[in-house]
Design a protein that fits this description.
Elements lengths: L1 H71 L5 H19 L8 H68 L4 E8 L14 E8 L8 E10 L5 E2 L6 E4 L2 E4 L2 E7 L4 E9 L7 E9 L2 E10 L1
Antiparallel strand pairs: 1-2, 2-8, 3-4, 3-7, 3-9, 5-6, 9-10
């Protein structure tokens, strides 16, 4: 009986040990489970961080590439430049807020998708504009070439017209032909002596000219001494030549009907002492020199 009572405490201790071991096993199991769960969660978080970091790097790289592409495209079109600058500013804002926790990565991806579509449209418009510009440049070159050709042809025609007009104008001017100058002394006799000249006779022919204006023609004669002094009865005897009034020696009106006028003569009455040398005679009509001659006095 006493042995049985003594054995009971030992049995209780064994049961206690077993209970403690069971509790420890359970606790260790729980701790192991919690530890494993924590490790799994940590690994998941690390994986998420790695994924997020990688995705952010990809987003940053794509945004940077888009910014560079926009920056490299140049155009003079105001509307396209507005789109370009707006998108560049938007890219700057996205890059600035990339590390902001309030912005989720899927939001960035959505924005990038939209911006990518805008860029495609932008590039298409740029290409279309450049193509159109090339066409316009080619057309402009063609137009300029045609303009230069037409301008050259027009200038040639104008030059030819001016030449023809000048020829007609020259052809319409009367010409004094067969000019004969005779210094005369008393009684109408010819002389070569400067001291004896009382008259100077200038005779000439006006050939027929179908394009000259017909009617009465004022014919002026200027006789210049060797010292270039023009012989004249009065300094008031003036006529218009090349926009200026100049003095003349003698004048007469000749009726001209586009047919030859022979032996038209003009006389200058001399009242001064002449000098020896060569005298120049110029004949004028309609503001043009129509003939020239010389004579010599001794």
């Amino acid at each position: 009986m006493t042995e049985q009572i003594e054995k009971k405490p030992g049995k209780s201790i064994n049961i206690l040990y077993i209970s403690v071991i069971v509790v420890l096993v359970v606790v260790i199991g729980i701790i192991s489970y919690l530890y494993k769960t924590q490790i799994d969660e940590t690994e998941i978080k690390i994986a998420e961080v790695v994924k997020t970091t990688r995705e952010k790097a990809e987003v940053k790289a794509e945004l940077s590439a888009m910014y560079i592409q926009y920056d490299s495209v140049q155009t003079d079109n105001d509307s396209l430049n507005f789109i370009r600058n707006t998108q560049k500013d938007k890219i700057k804002d996205l890059l600035k807020n990339l590390n902001n926790k309030k912005f989720e990565i899927h939001t960035f991806k959505k924005e990038i998708k939209t911006m990518r579509n805008i860029m495609k449209s932008y590039i298409v418009q740029i290409d279309s504009l450049n193509t159109r510009n090339q066409i316009l440049i080619a057309e402009n070159k063609d137009v300029k070439a045609k303009f230069r050709k037409e301008k050259s042809a027009k200038e040639k025609l104008m030059t030819e017209a001016q030449q023809l007009e000048h020829q007609i104008e020259n052809a319409s001017v009367l010409k004094a032909k067969e000019i004969i100058v005779e210094p005369l002394k008393k009684r109408g006799r010819k002389t070569k002596s400067a001291k004896r000249v009382e008259k100077i006779k200038i005779c000439f022919q006006l050939p027929d000219n179908t394009i000259a204006q017909s009617g009465d023609k004022e014919i002026y004669v200027r006789i210049a001494r060797p010292d270039e002094l023009v012989l004249t009865e009065s300094k008031d005897k003036l006529f218009l030549f090349e926009g200026k009034e100049i003095v003349y020696s003698a004048m007469r009106i000749v009726e001209y009907n586009n047919l030859t006028v022979n032996n038209a003569c003009i006389y200058y009455d001399n009242y001064e002492e002449l000098i020896a040398g060569t005298y120049n005679v110029d004949i004028f009509s309609d503001g043009q020199i129509i003939g020239q001659s010389t004579f010599i006095l001794k």
